[in-house]
Design a protein that fits this description.
59% of the residues lie in helices and 7% in strands. The chain is an alpha/beta fold. It folds into two domains: 13-29 and 37-429, no CATH class; 437-545. The strands form two sheets. The chain has a six-stranded mixed sheet. It is globular.
Length: 560
Amino acid sequence: MLRRPAWRSGWLVVAAVVAATTALVAWFYLLDVHANGPVVNSDGATVVLEGHAIASGNVLLHGWILSLDSWWSLDAAWNALGVALVGIRPVLLFGIPAVICALTVVVGAALASSGYRRGAAAAAVAVVVTLLALPAHAMVTMWLVNPSHQSTALVALVAFAGASRGRWGWPWAVAVAAMTVGLLGDLETVAYSVVPVALAGVAAALRRRRWAAGTPALTAAAASVLLAAAVREVTAHLGAFALGPTNPHAPLNQMRLNALDVPGGIAQLLGVGTSAFGPSGVPSDVEAFHVAGLVAVAVAVVAAAVLMVRGVLGREAGRSRLLRPDPTGRDEAWRLDDMLLIASTGPVVTYLVQALVISPAYLRYLTASVVFAAVLAGRMLARFLHRRAEREVRGLATRRRGAAAARAVALVAGVAVVAAFATGGAMQAAQPSEAQTAAGLVSFLEAHHLHSGVGDYWSASITTVESSGHVKVRPVVEAPDGRLAAYDKGPQRAWLSGVPVRFVVFHAPVGYNGVSVASSTATWGPPAHTYRVGNYEVVVWRHSHHVHLFEPIRGYRSPG
């Protein structure tokens, strides 16, 4: 029998991965548009404008003021590619998250099945695809948003792939590069990958009772921090963006409340419980199958935690032969398992610290936990099936008359769960897509020949992007003297210095940070017209004004 050449098999694998990724991008885009239309906002639109600046040659974002999650090397870079291809278009608000999430599923599936073959590998991939490619309504709302730390989770998975080899070489360099890229764009990378890789290195040293076993992971984490600091220092000297005031942290009492809210938040993202994001359009009997996903994740986390503790304490020979690591030391799959386990707790820590109130909006900090735990669940199932198969081959499995029937029941149950998840996803994607609320505002402004203005944060950048850049609205705030001043993020001098302004727009009755009719009038006098356009208030003057004399007002906090 003729064997297929290795190069041809390799190209077939590449073609299959590209086809699967393309299909996932199309699926996520469809799901995002139909389930998330009203959710996209100025956070994502501002990143699109960052991408436009990068694509226009301002690679270092000179003159910009950004927060610690600047997105410069992450979502802004992705948006720069998108802008280079299609220009400033609203499609990027949905398209970029679709691309990032699709790549996350592909990389996550590859990690979940890594080291396993055939049925075990297929089961691992099925778990990741079911939990992440067919997400519940709350997960769609929080994950498929531009930006929502999903790119940070993606580079973390890439870092785990390299650092889990437990040795030096190009995988180690890939891990360092991935964490460095993450650190330069989002400080959440510390909790998502740097600390998990370092702690997994410590766990590896304790498992093997020698520091050399954990040195590659520890040095990878340390090298990424040093390299990111060096790059930031060099780019700052070259005129890169400045960092604005940081967001406040939750007080201790709020952290306690956040801790109590974590289990319900995770459950909600996995589709269990009442969604705080409105009706999903999926019948409750179909959504009930999401309990299986929650159980799978919970069991996987507990099993991985038990395995890690046993390994660290040198008690790997537990009662369960199916979950026991290989005592010969040849099987080091636990390196990746440990990283995923520790990483699944990192976003929880950020949620405890950064959620200022109990609000569904802050669940975005927990989406990465679901991602890491879903990959871990795939690996734990693959490990179970692999151990089971090994025992059957060696004749160690108990031969019972009902064993085949039990496997058949398990297979049917698994297919039913996947079918229910797929049905729920299809029903969400079939929902009528709601128009972005800024679309009507853009139509009004263009019809009245209003192309340059200012507004509150939540009205500004989203209007600019929704109009494909034809209407430019820049963010302002109410200063202590009652007049309007530049918002403390973005390239304020480039956006506002010498730029004629004819209107102010804000969410009625008073916009974010005090933007209102009163503050607008205090700035430029009585307006000629005041219009109500949907949820927006538009204040218009007969003649243009300038805001170049105003400086950014420190002390106003970024909404991110």
